[in-house]
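Subject line: Sequence and fold of a protein, written as structure tokens
Area: Proteins and the way their chains fold up in space.
Start of record: The labelled sequence and token lines come straight after this line.
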Amino acid sequence: MKDIDNALIKIAQGDMSALSVVHDGLARLVFSVAFTVTGNAEDSRDVLGDTIIRVAQSAHLYRPGSNARAWVCAIARNLALDLLRKRRREEADGEAVERESCDDETAVWELLSSLGEGDREIVLLRVNLGYSYKEIAALAGTTPEAARKRYKRAIDKLKGDLTK
């Protein structure tokens, strides 16, 4: 992830062409984090775009040498939570607009939605992005063994849901 670290430094120095390195290197992860929070692919794509914009605006706040991936994921998670809060306020005000999914979420995404946020994130990181348990543990703030057990429990739940 040294490439992402270097890209963030370049962006902070005004080289916006380095945004493509961040996008190409972290788009799947950012989408997965956003989907974990929103449970909606369309919203997750919006959060991905907003995250890249926020990275461009906030790269000067990044501490070189720290965990670039975790920093970008924190931005994505916060933006996804902001989106949910905004939507809840709109719904409370009676201004919510009926939203249609542009691609009718697949059964897989619906199945993943049945998991809790943390379990869904672990499954997406492992299956979608191929992260090791050690990498997942670092992002989740847990041990690799705990990440492995949590992943197994989530997969077992998904298997159970499929047989219903």
